[in-house]
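Tutorial, part two.
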Amino acid sequence: MGKIVLVEINFPQVNKGLLLARLDPQSHAKATRYLREEDQIRSAVASILIRNEVGQGEIHLGSRGKPYIDGKSFFNVSHSGNWVGIYVDNEEIGLDIECISRCDLSIAKAAFTPEEAAFIFNQMDFALAWTRKEAVGKCLGRGIEDPVHIGLSMLEKNRCAYQGEKYYLQQWVSGDYAFCVAKKENNAFPEPTILHVGDLLKN
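Running the prediction step on this input gives:
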C-alpha cells in the first residue's frame, strides 16, 4: 500500500527561512524563483515532502513526463492554498487539491464536458468534479492541459470511466478544500497522514 501525506500551512506562522535552509541547492533555487512568499513556501514544502517520502532515488520521467523513481515507485504532488500533499505508490496514481471558494462557476462550460457540467450547480460540485478530473489526468500522466478533453463518466460514487478504462477514486472535503486521489487498481487507498509545517522541521 502507498502513502498519502498532507501538510497544512498556517502562513502567518511559517518561518520561511527555516524551510529554505532545509533544501538542497536545486530545490532552493526553484523555490526562490517564485515572487510571492506563499508560493516560495509551498514549493519548499513540496520539495521537503518529496525528499522525505520518495527518498534519494533518482527521479525519472515517463513517456508523458510523469515522474517516478528507481524501482518504478510513482509519486504525485499537489497544492492549493493552505495545503500541499504527496501521494506515493508502486502503481500509477493521481492526487489533486482544490480550494472550494476559489472555483469559478463561470468557466464550467469551458472546463467540463456537457455530461460533467450537467451535475455542477455550485462551487462544491465544481471542486469535486475538478479534483476528479485532475486526479485522473495525473494518473494518466497527462495533467489538465485541455480539461474538457478528459471527460469522465461516473459509474458509481467512487468509480469512473475514461476512454474505456476504469478509475477508482477517493474524495473528501476538509474545511474549504476538496481532495481526490485516483488509481486504476481496485484496492484500498492509504489513509492520509496530516501534518503541519512544524512537523517537517523536527527531524
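The longest helix spans residues 37-54. In part three we will examine how such features are distributed along the chain.
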